Structure formats: C-alpha cells, structure tokens
Amino acid sequence: MAAINAQASESQVQTLCGIKPDNIPDEVLNADRPIVPKGLVADWPAVKAAQAGKATAIAYMREHCKNQQVMVFKAAAEARGRFFYNNDLSGFNFERLSASLDHMLNQFEALGDKEDDPACYIGSTSVDSCCPDFRKQNDLVLGSAASANNHGAGPLVSVWMGNQTRIAAHFDSPNNIACVTAGRRRFTLFAPEQLVNLYVGPLDFTPAGQAISLVDFHKPDFDRYPRFKEALKVAQVVELDAGDAIYIPSMWWHHVEALEAFNVLINYWWQAASDADNHQGLKTAPMDTMIHALLGIKKLPIEQRRAWQGLFNHYIFEQTPDLLSHIPDKAQGVLGEIDDATAKQLLAMLRRKLDK
Q1: Which of 41, 43, 148, 299 has its CA 20 to 30 A from that of 180?
Q2: DSSP string of 4-39?
Q3: How many CA within 13 A on the CB side of residue 332?
Q4: Cβ(240)–Cβ(246) under 8 Å?
Q5: DSSP assignment letter at 298
Q6: 240 in Cβ contact with 36 (< 8 Å)
Q7: Mean pLDDT over the full length of the chain
Q8: What gap in Å lies between CA 97 and CA 303, rounded to an integer?
Q9: How far is the first Cα of the chain from the last one, in angstroms, to the nearest whole number?
C-alpha cells in the first residue's frame, strides 16, 4: 500500500473516542462524512477472543456459528489478495464456490500469510443466519436511524471472514458501520464527487454486485488512469485494529484491505430514517432508475439530454420550498408528498409504461 500512502493527502478520517455500542450519537449515524468511533466494539467478547490470537478468534467464531453452507470467494496466490477482473474484463481472477462454514474455518486455521497461500473470504453473509447467537453478546444499537431499513426490522447485519484480501473501491447505497472484530483493516475513502477520477468499470458485470474502480491501489498506472492522482489528493486513509469501527455514509467510495492471516468484519447497513425506500412492501432502488435512464435518455440528442437534466434538477435534485406553491395541494398529484398511495400510483404508471 506504499504507493497510496505516499500519494494520498494528509486528510484524515475524523476519529471519536468514548462512544459505546448502545449509545451511538445521531450526529454519527446521520453524518455526511466518514467517522471512526475508536474502540467502539473493544468490549465485545469476539474482540477480546481475537486479541488472544488467531486460534482463539477462530475458536470463538466456531463456537458461535452454526455449520451451514456459505458463499466463498477464492483467488490464486498470484492475485496477491486482489479480487478483480481477468486481463480483458471478460471474467474474474477468482472463483465463487459453496462450502460449509466449518470447512472454511478449518481452511483459515491452515492458511497463513505465505506468498503461495490463496486468498479467500466469506462475504456479506447474514450474521443472524450463520451465527444466530453472536449478536446476543456482540451487537450495536442503532435505534430509529435504522428503522426504515429491512421493512422496519432494523439494519442488515453481515459478517465477512477471510485471510489477506483486497476489495476494489466501490460504493454502497445504504449507510454502513463496519466493526473490526479480528485482524486489521485498511480503508481508503473518497467522496461521491470523485467518481470521475476513479475509472469505474462496468455496471452490469461486476465482481460482487457493485461497480468497482479499475485502478490497482497497490500499483496505480497513472499513464492509463491519470485522473486518479486527483482522487488521491483528497483520499482519506485509515487503518483499524480489532475493536475499532468506521461509519461510511451512503455513496462514499471505499477500498478495503484485510491485513492479517485471519480477519473478521461485522457490518451494519441501513437506509436513513427519512428514506422512503419501500411502500406497500414494494422496494425501489435508485440504481434501477439510472438503468431506466440509460434506456430512455442516454441516446437522445445533447439538447434533449440537457433539457431532461434540467427537469431532474428542478423536480428531484434541486427542490426549493416554494417549488409547488403555485399548485393547490390537492392537485399536486405525484409531485406532492410520496405516501404509500402515491407510491402505488407511481409504480402502476411505471408498469403500464414498461408493459407497452
């Protein structure tokens, strides 16, 4: 990671101390920038077990997780832990496979940090599904901040386990608190406006669901990706020990490295309480809207695209308090407050249009 550390700015992620897992301030959960609550989960039993060593960390996970099939990502030693595309972006440099959790914990016990070791990790697996007792002693309380997510059932809580790995810079739509419970993690973060400088790959063919930066952060090719130098000027880099956590706001790009022979991360995803992301049990996603725009707007003449950009700005991105003051409340229709009834109306309109 020397190249990134040498090129990145001195901009640091804000660090806060003394925050407890059951009393995370709203100013953290609603922040528009990354924040590190230092030692947030230091008192979790899982963290204390990991601090006694790799064997104890694995034993703790084995004790609190049930043996079920999990999705595993595995890359050969020559990938150097980087999970990525193949050379021409027609496939990937890793394989996906299903394995029992017990088998993988045995694998992690056997794997070290030798150069000829493959890289592998269990990715984004539901904690409540594979480790049903884990959250009884190791959990965060997010309160109303997460109430809108998952049909009101709270945040989506996932576990990531593996050896030394590198996950390319990507963004997630939900807010995220990632808690390091074993090993160490390095996060390199960029604000959403750095999109143009990150050289993002395909939207429809991705390693794990999200579009990723094509830049190798260990060996940036500035001839091929010259604007990446601009991103590095505002990059925020932070290294977390077991017990530390990081809050990553929605849409922030983050490159994640697991640095030890065994690493465990527990992360909490949620939509902000003000997000009207599901109505009448029907889920909508902003990315779906963008895919529809690729079909309907991208190939229009530039003058028309600019006109549509103006409409989007007017009605969605740059709303003003008096935007609809000239229309009586009862006549605002779908431009007014989007409650469940309005959402059903909009979805019905979309279905009619798409079925033509």
Answers
A1: 148
A2: HHHHS-S---EEEES--TT---HHHHT-SS-EEEET
A3: 16
A4: yes
A5: T
A6: yes
A7: 88
A8: 48
A9: 52
N residues, the chain: 356
Residues 6 or more apart whose CB falls under 8 angstroms from that of 109 comprise 54, 55, 58
Q: Residue 188 has which token pair? A: 């390199």
Tokens representing residue 340 in the block: 């469940």
For residue 209, which of 302, 331, 322, 73 has the smallest C-alpha distance?
A: 73
The confidence score (pLDDT) of residue 2 equals 43
pLDDT of residue 118: 93
The CB density around residue 286, as the number of other CB atoms within 10 Å, is 12
Six-digit token pair at 13?
């992620």
Our CA angle for 350, 354, 356, nearest 5°, is 125
Q: Are 128 and 114 in contact (CB under 8 A)?
A: no
Alpha helices in the chain (DSSP H): 2-7, 26-29, 45-51, 54-64, 101-110, 127-130, 228-233, 286-296, 302-312, 340-354
**pLDDT score for 282:** 52
pLDDT digit string, tens, across residues 106-164: 999 998 767 788 999 998 899 999 999 999 999 999 877 665 454 456 789 999 999 99
Q: Give the CA count within 13 Å in the CB-facing half-sphere of 327.
A: 11
For residue 194, what are the CA distances in angstroms to 34, 105, 280? Answer: 15, 38, 35
Report how far residue 269's alpha carbon sits from residue 172's, in angstroms, rounded to the nearest whole number.
9
Q: How far apart are CA 40 and CA 312, in angstroms?
A: 40
Amino acid (one-letter) located at 278 = N
> How far apart are the C-alpha atoms of 260 and 242, rounded to whole Å?
11
Percent of the chain with pLDDT over 90: 67
CA angle 31, 340, 176 (to 5 degrees): 25
Q: How confident is the model at residue 271, as a pLDDT?
A: 82
Alpha carbon distance 4, 193 (integer Å)? 19
Q: Does residue 127 contact residue 158 with C-beta atoms inside 8 Å?
A: yes
Q: Which amino acid is at 35?
A: I
Q: Residue 341: its pLDDT value, please? A: 81
Please state whether 181 falls in left (phi above 0), alpha (psi between -120 and 50) or beta: alpha
